[in-house]
Amino acid sequence: MSPILAISGLGKQFGGVTALAGVDLAVEEGEILGVVGPNGSGKTTLFNVVTGVHKPSGGTVLFRGRDITGLAPHAISRAGIGYTFQQAMAFAGLGVLENVQIAGEHRRAGGAANPWPTPQALLDFVGLSALGGEKAGVLPFGSLRLLGLALALATRPSLLLLDEPAAGLNDRETSALVGLVRQLPGHGITVCVIDHDMKLMQMLCRRLAVLDFGSKIADGPTEKVLADPKVLDVYLGGDL
Ligand SMILES: Nc1ncnc2c1ncn2[C@@H]1O[C@H](COP(=O)(O)OP(=O)(O)OP(=O)(O)O)[C@@H](O)[C@H]1O
């Protein structure tokens, strides 16, 4: 089967800084792929280029075989790629349920049957149904992250990119998040996740890709990649 996302030779320069130096990466339909690498290795830039936040300096991104390279973010979202940000994003002055309703107005037309046909069903899924009437701005941090996940899912993506979804979460919140993310492939949603927490990545991902200075240095089964001397080398003194 051809990959849901095929990235070839992707490059991104910021002035003199090479954030991506020609990355090839395939995301297979139905998997949860992890992207790891030291600080500044290009992980967020990779997501930003795939989602149209930044235009690449070179290379191509094919989504379900369609060239989406350099399209505007709304067009890429409409095509079926969802994104959660490192900073949880919601309209602070609006209610939790209202936020999900508004995100759902930008959903992709068609696609497979919707596992969460109403905003309330989506809030139930992420465990926030009791907080639907609260203003998003008063939510504790962990709940705000879960709302961020609900907002991304409301756009009905077939590929979801998660950027450090567990940053700032406690252990209980992290295991709740792991439980939710693991269910996504069963609902027809392929996942690509960035995180520094290798325990989390081991729980979530059967496959890891490793970036270092904007280049992919390893790609394969999680345990094999984490034992790869090249990978150990870039994390030397780090938190692996
Ligand atoms: N908007 C920008 N303007 C200039 N340089 C940038 C910009 N975004 C990223 N960079 C640079 O590109 C390189 C890759 O950064 P990026 O944020 O993609 O790394 P990362 O692997 O996500 O890091 P972290 O793990 O710290 O989030 C870094 O040198 C960074 O300083």
TrEMBL record:
As given in the record, the signal peptide range reads: none
User: CDD domains per the record?
Assistant: ABC_Mj1267_LivG_branched
The protein's name in its UniProt record:
ABC transporter ATP-binding protein
PROSITE patterns in the record: ABC_TRANSPORTER_2
The transmembrane segments are none
Could you tell me the keywords of this UniProt record? Answer: ATP-binding, Nucleotide-binding, Transport
MF term (GO), any:
ATP hydrolysis activity
- Species whose genome carries this gene: Mesorhizobium jarvisii
